[in-house]
Amino acid sequence: MEKDFNEFRFAGLNYKNKSNKYFTMDRVSQDESKIVVKVADSHLLPTKFGYALILDCNHVIFIKNWQVSHNFFGNEVLLTKEHFVVKEWGDFSNEFGEEPQNLKWETWVDTAKEQDNLKDDEGNYINKVSWEK
After folding, report:
1. What's the pLDDT tens digit per position in 81-96?
2. If I label 97, which of 11, 12, 44, 83 is the partner at 20 to 30 A Cα–Cα?
3. pTM
4. Short-list 52, 56, 91, 82, CA closest to 68
5. How many angstroms separate the CA atoms of 133 and 32, rounded?
6. CA distance 29 to 50
C-alpha cells in the first residue's frame, strides 16, 4: 500500500532509495508540475490539517503532512502546480516582508532548479533530495 502511495506522490520525480532510511529524487518533474524544495523551519507552520507554507508576510499555501519531510538534512516540501493555491492568511510580518514573486509557481520551480544544481568547490552536487521514509 505505501509503495503505491509513494508512486502517486512522487510520480514524475524518479524517486529511488538513497539508503534504508531515505529516498532521493529529482527536484523538478519533466513537465514542471511537481517540485521538491528545501525550506527553512520559519517557512512551515503546523496547522490542524497539515502545514501552512509561508510565502510572505500574509500569504500561505496549505499542504498536507505527507508533503513535508522533516529530517536530519532539513525540511523538504513536495509541491504541485495544480494545488499551488495562494491564500491570504495570518500575519508573519515580524519575519517576512511582502514578496510578490513568492506567490508565483514559477518562482518556486526556479528555486527548486537552483537547489538541484548547487555544487561544492569540487563540482559535486550538494543539495540532493533526502526524503525520510
Report:
1. 999 999 999 999 999 9
2. 83
3. 0.92
4. 52
5. 24
6. 23
